[in-house]
Amino acid sequence: MHPNLRPGERFPDIELPDHAGNPRRLSELVGSDPTFINFFRGFWCPKEQAFFRVLTAFQAEVEVAYARIVSVSVDAPDVNAAFRAGLGARWTFLSDPERRYLDELGLRETTDTLNHPYWPASFTLYPDLTIRSVFTGYWFWGRPTMEELRQDFRAITREIRADWEVSAT
Amino acid sequence: MNWMWFAVVQDGAARDAYAAAPAWCLDGRRAGVLAVWPAEHRPKVPAVKVDARIVDRDGDRAELSLVLAPPRVRLLFDDTAVQQARRDVLAGRPPRALSTLLRGDSIFAGAVTVDPAGDDPFARIFPARRLTIGPGLFGRVPAHPGPDIERHGSGAPWPFPTFDAPVTDQAALR
User: Fold this and answer.
1) Closest in B146, B161, B165 to A90, CB measured
2) Nearest to A90 by CA among B13, B87, B77
3) Does position A67 have pLDDT exceeding 90, yes or no?
4) What is the tens place of the pLDDT at every residue in A2-27?
């Protein structure tokens, strides 16, 4: 992983096609909300399937909490669209079939030297793309639990929303 | 301002509109004129709020799914039926542009979907009309990132994206 991908550093504002094939920039997807971005090997990986099932259940909270999720793989947009539909996911999937950011981010999977998917890393981001937390998911237990994501979303939201506390009157 | 007034009117009633386009049913019958006005210029005809980002005076002709609440029916925007329709929009393939329609700040008045990519989830709530409209009214808006289905600020038609985002320059979207 690139040494700059650590808490406090700014995540690169990557631009890739979404699951419908339209070019999207990360900063546009993040908007003004805390965001979880995960890089995943592909729909075929049982570990990714297990993680995404949990993440898809978690979206029932995220959808009302002014936060975002973005997922990135080397699969083509129509492949990601099918995976997304099968999961019932309602967030944006980005596709990098040309492996445009694989080496720039230092996220080239080391054990699959044939297909060169993304190494499963994930990040929580502030709206300005500053990294709050890094999760290394090569081993499944390195991935964030939904409780860890709740804690990060809480911490970021507390920092960026001026009305987090009830003001004294 | 993140929203504009929207109404379906008869020929002649849209003379003072910011943008307007004639509409036809799929069988070729005229279906009036679809028109929008700036938020600060409320038209004399009954009108509802629409997300200003979808309005584009340089927009191409389009097919629409237009869902309008029947007269005197008042369904809360936060009703579970409307919530589920918003989820289904995000789960499906994105249309060219989409906006819910609001009466006041809290009443769901319908939805307009520009060049729908499949079924219109809002058509399960109220009757939908499939229309063709001329150019000069609706543009292209990037799909909502999801998964949020809440409005960013009451009074803003979903899916207006952020609490403080300015109205996007439509020319920059093309």
Assistant:
1) B146
2) B87
3) yes
4) 999 999 999 999 999 999 999 999 99
